[in-house]
Design brief:
It contains 3 helices and 12 strands; from the N terminus they run E-E-E-E-E-E-H-E-E-E-E-H-E-E-H. The protein is α+β, with helices and mostly antiparallel strands. Strands 4, 5, 6, 7, 8, 9 and 10 form a 7-stranded mixed β-sheet that branches. Strands 1-12-11 form a 3-stranded antiparallel β-sheet. Strands 2-3 form a two-stranded antiparallel sheet.
């Protein structure tokens, strides 16, 4: 399980962020070979599908699985023909997840609902804290505690 805060420090100010941001995410090919760089990822509960940096896919030598029309990942309303790649997304203390993700020109990942399947994301709006973990861990430890509140 990992946790974080819905804010970011900028100089001497703390600014709110719109969604949980995970640092130290690793992208791997399906054989488990890692990209040498660690990435940041925004958890995007409004996204159907995960989006990964196209540069990481190319540097891992991945071939597109297929091409699909997608929109929204670049704030555009018009669908664009976009390649999809089989990748593994690894987050320490949470797990390693095989995904069919869109590869686009960006410097961070968008983790969509395909990634969140099987996980629980808890956001406490009052304290601006969040937690992400595997469903089985939450089911056994956290949810019974929350029911008592």
């Amino acid at each position: 399980m990992i946790n974080g805060q819905l804010s970011e420090t900028c100089g001497n100010r703390t600014l709110p962020v719109a969604a949980p941001i995970v640092s130290s995410v690793q992208i791997r090919d399906l054989a488990g070979n890692p990209h040498p760089q660690y990435w940041s990822a925004l958890i995007d509960t409004g996204a159907d599908t995960t989006v990964v940096p196209l540069a990481a896919c190319k540097e891992l030598g991945l071939a597109p699985r297929d091409w699909r029309y997608a929109r929204g990942y670049d704030h555009g309303a018009q669908p664009r023909r976009t390649p999809r790649y089989y990748v593994r997304v690894e987050i320490p203390e949470v797990g390693d997840f095989p995904l069919l993700a869109f590869g686009v020109q960006r410097s961070y990942l968008l983790l969509g609902r395909d990634f969140l399947a099987g996980l629980l994301l808890l956001v406490d709006g009052e304290s601006s804290h969040w937690k992400l973990g595997r469903r089985s861990l939450w089911t056994r430890l956290v949810l019974p505690f929350l029911a008592l509140r």
